[in-house]
Amino acid sequence: MKHLVTIALALFFIARISAAPTNKIVVATDGSGNFKSIQEAINSVPDNQSARTTIFVKNGVYHEKVMVSSSKLNISLIGESAEHTIITNSDYNPKIVGKDTITTWSSYTFAVDAEGFIGENITFENGSGRVGQAVAVRVMSDRVVFKNCRFLGNQDTLFAHGVGRMYFKNCYIEGTTDYIFGSAVALFENCHIHSKINSYVTAASTPMGNKYGYVFKNCTLTADTSAHKVFLGRPWRPYAKTVYINCNMGDFIRPEGWNNWGSTEKEKTAYYAEYKSTGAGATPEARTKWSKQLSDEEAADYSIEKIFARTSVPIPVVGLGAWIPGVK
Question: What does the domain layout of the chain look like in residue ranges?
């Protein structure tokens, strides 16, 4: 009798689990999932939903140009492994497609226009080579997180744009010129930043009034052996803000650190700063006079809670509930 009760309880719980909604979609190139295409999986998610949907992507190379449109809220795109789950495309500016010319804006391999997006364990690649501006990932929304992802490309690899807040943790980002660029409030934590040629790491276009722009914390900057004259950044727009905190940088970083993009006027408005940089490329005494070395008190303002506070951006952003512990 006791054995029969145990079996009945087991069957009851199995039935409950089977009936419960999982909100999980599987993508696999071999057809073993719900979809073979990442874009088809994203399109299947109901519009404007508050519940989170997880799309699990099995290892494989996905030759796609993917858009997470603004109505596809709260999607988690989780790869099986960062090294072997690869989304790749090869558009670039000025590639001709039919009667249209690809621009930097439309050259993306993967675009996020929806709030609440999370990406993990995925490689995003623009495989067009060194042919011009070619974006691997373009983000234009708020409350976006990438963890343990790889961003591969050359010029303009990662377009972190708009007025939203973006968090990159334990990511690898490579490129040639201005390969992290745009206007977003973006925190890069424990990331590996790799320069492939003598050029510029960042080109921020932070809007006037933003307290924060691009912030790199505890990151490691490396370069190809042929690169030995790399700038930490240059201002795409006058009020660009970029700060490196506790970052290790090799001797390929130019002693002056920063470039004014040919405009002494931008030196008056751009905000470029460092705090306790380490490595052979950390030369605070040689940095440009219009850049800044932060004090301990000033560096304390760069906590994740303060960087992502709603008051850090001039335009109020839409709330979707907690996205990072302690941050609304």
Answer: 22-160
Whole-angstrom distance, CA of residue 159 vs CA of residue 174 = 13
CATH (residue range 22-160):
2.160.20.10
Annotated active-site residue 156? The verdict is: yes
Tokens of 244: 């490196």
Would you write out the chain's pLDDT as a tens digit for each of its 328 residues? Answer: 444 444 443 443 333 333 333 469 999 999 999 999 999 999 999 999 999 999 999 999 999 999 999 999 999 999 999 999 999 999 999 999 999 999 999 999 999 999 999 999 999 999 999 999 999 999 999 999 999 999 999 999 999 999 899 999 999 999 999 999 999 999 999 999 999 999 999 999 999 999 999 999 999 999 999 999 999 999 999 999 999 999 999 999 999 999 999 999 999 999 999 999 999 999 999 999 999 999 999 999 999 999 998 777 665 555 555 678 767 6
Q: Verify whether residue 91 is a known catalytic residue.
A: no
Of the listed 156, 224, 296, 301, which one is catalytic?
156
Burial 187-221 (b: 16+ CB within 10 A, else e): bbbebebbbbbbbbbbbbbbbeebbbbbbbbebbb
Active-site choice (113, 142, 178, 224): 178
